[in-house]
Amino acid sequence: MRPAGRSWRRSTRGWCPTRPIIWQRTHRVARQWWRESDGRVDWAELLADTVFEGERLGRWVRSQRAAWPELAPDQRDLLLAIWIEEDPELLAARAAAAAKPRASRADRFQHGLAASLPTAA
Q: What helix, strand, coil percent values describe the chain, rounded to 5?
């Protein structure tokens, strides 16, 4: 195999056409961060506003840890390979937010209308 072919295969390792390209790109950046830190990354302590190589890495890691059940098994495996694990607290907070009843647009309008009307004295 030509050297150019080998480098292309190395650069596309882990690529999967069924995963969103932004997920793959951000995972590559997370893996690079992990490698440059010699594998000593505390992902739970990574600030949400951390940006690395132009990607919002902190936000992405947090969203992956919170959406663990929705990830495909191969995505979980890729994350576990760099020690990104699910976060039970984030999962619970996400479930609580999803269970919270949402006001409809009409309800919000009525609430705003009632707040803007003068009250009778």
A: 60, 0, 35
Contacts of 10 (CB under 8 A, 6+ apart): none
Q: How far apart (Å, rounded) are the C-alpha atoms in residues 31 and 80?
A: 11
Q: Could you list the pLDDT tens digit for every one of the 121 residues in the chain?
A: 455 555 544 455 566 677 789 999 999 999 999 999 998 999 999 999 999 999 999 999 999 999 999 999 999 999 999 999 998 888 777 777 777 777 788 888 888 888 888 776 5
Question: What's the pTM?
Answer: 0.68
End-to-end CA separation in angstroms for the chain: 87
